[in-house]
Design brief:
Strand content: 15-25%
Distance between the termini: 46 Å
Number of helices: 25
Radius of gyration: 31 Å
Bound molecules: 2-(butylsulfanyl)adenosine
Largest sheet: 7 strands, antiparallel
Length: 678
Amino acid sequence: MDLFDSPLEKERERYEYLCREIERHNELYYVHASPEISDYEYDMLMKELEEIERKYPQLRTPYSPTQRVGGKVIDEFKSVEHTIPMLSIDNTYNEGEIKEFDNRIKRTLNIEGDICYVVELKIDGVAVALRYSNHIFSQAVTRGDGFRGDDITENARTIRSIPLRLVDTAPNSLEVRGEVFMMNKELERLNQIREELGEEPFRNPRNTTAGTLKQKDPRQVAQRKLSAFFYEVILDETNKNLITTHTDTLNFLKKWGFPVNPHWKACKNIEEVIEYCNSWREKRYSLEYEIDGMVIKVNDHTLREKLGTTSKSPRWVIAYKFPAETARTKLLNIKIQVGKTGALTPVAEMEPVPLAGTIVKRATLHNFEELERKDIRIGDTVEIQKAGEIIPQVIRPIIELRPPDAKPFPLPEICPVCGSKVQKDPEGVFYRCLSTECPAQLKQKIQHYAQRRAMDIEGLGPALVEQLVDKGLVKNIADLYRLKKEQLVQLERMGDKSADNLMSAIQESKNRPLNALLYGLGIRHVGQHLAEILANQFRNIDDLINVDTEKLIAINEVGPVVAKSIKDFFSTKANVELIEDLKKLGVRTYEVDENINTVKNILSGKTFVVTGTLKNYTRDQIEQQIKQLGGKVTSSVSKNTDFVLVGDNPGTKYEKAKQLGVKTITEIEFMNMIKEGI
Ligand code: IVH
């Protein structure tokens, strides 16, 4: 048999095709932001590739897109020597210093005419070097001390915009250097999750990037979506004449599939450089990532070589740093916010002040420990900063300007909203209100429950929740489903039409998938991702409620702390009652298996009668479910009835079934039946 006809060779061909195709789509999505296929189609390609790798593990390669999810935990990062040192760059802070840089270069080179520079954004991230051998990504190294860095290959592999294999036209041996960074939106997403977990938020994208790249578990890195831009190329002897200018560098990088920041300009003299730098002073706030200045580089590589380097930095490059984004203002008050898990957060209310493109009047003080440590007092003039974080933070008080009567802010002993006792987390920095009836917590809980990612009740915004709770119309989540239109129309800013819309949004939320409900319940440590895993695993809230801790811990993503939090939630009386209440009100607490519904007519030809109250379905829902699966529902029991589904307090139909010898089943039996097929 011809070798290429063997099944393995066929698979290898398909495997190679899929690797290239998926990576092409990765590049389209992550580098060019112009995807050609839907997420679903992408997932299908990935699934096929995973399947081939499962069947034929010998085909798996390090450049396979499946390797981006992160592999084994690393014991220690290997130290690697840089091919040429990764030097830092000198800084300038004003036009005069930029002109001085230009003059120095002209003097050194003995040139009278203008020098051509390329100006780029100075990305506020972490410098890395990537090495490629025979077009395959082989190593990633951090800057370290400039001479040696850490081998972070497996972490870098998870960054989707970093190509794992280069186009054939790229040099065989190649090193590129650039910046790994985090988009502001990603930081926001991670912080939302951290907040749910009761963990302190990350302060800014740069530190988060640095911390992420130092993670020993690449799977963790894969989950924090990092980005990258590249701006330097190092070629070996064979290819060294390929690139003669920095514009060449940027164009080649792009051609070889690397992400290159689109905002750069080749300037014909230093005046143009200054103008371009200044044009970014304000515009930088419209970017989706942080920059801390501009980088000015001599374009011509021959000139670069002539200029050479000092021991610290090359003479052909300089950074122009934007002035620090801080402002001073007066701290008028400290308000305490109560989160949905009762965590108290101090928030600074300040005299409005312009900062980083917006007017700021509120800033976070993070937590009481920090407030105490920084000794920030009401009446202080404070320095505030916006350095990547979405909400500005108070850096320090200006002690010289402190009014003599300013007193330290007392640690909270009671909740500012409900007056209940507060307690400090044994394992963390947060003080929490312990009351289960605190209206502030309830408001946050309802808002969390109603948000799009949870039960998606459109129109149930903060102002409305405020009114519903303050007027006593909603005392717990279940009360939302007891609201009447007449009550809604009496609220402020609530017309007839909005009341109708809200009523139907509440109604529709009853049918949200189980993962949305689990997330919406606001169980500590259960974020969106874990809610999905739990819903998939248990498929029914009762199975999750009754599961023992060991089984929970056996789930990959669940550790002892998370398991305890889930168990605690479901063994709190108020929560158990809430779930029973939600069921009675018709909220779906189980997963509907779409495959069974549409693909298999597993109840075809079977006739059902339902009697008594069910826990997981309303009457409408159960009848619909049976019909969807091909079954029939009738109202009276006869010898033609196949099953009588018996709930709580069944009526005479149950007796009749027993008399006629018709099979009776419980709700759980029914659910198992449709899960497993009959
Ligand atoms: S060029 C030898 N270009 O800023 C020249 N650096 O403060 C290599 N950075 O270590 C650097 N954006 O990590 C260059 N467009 C850019 C940059 C950039 C950010 C970082 C880089 C460097 C640091 C110096």
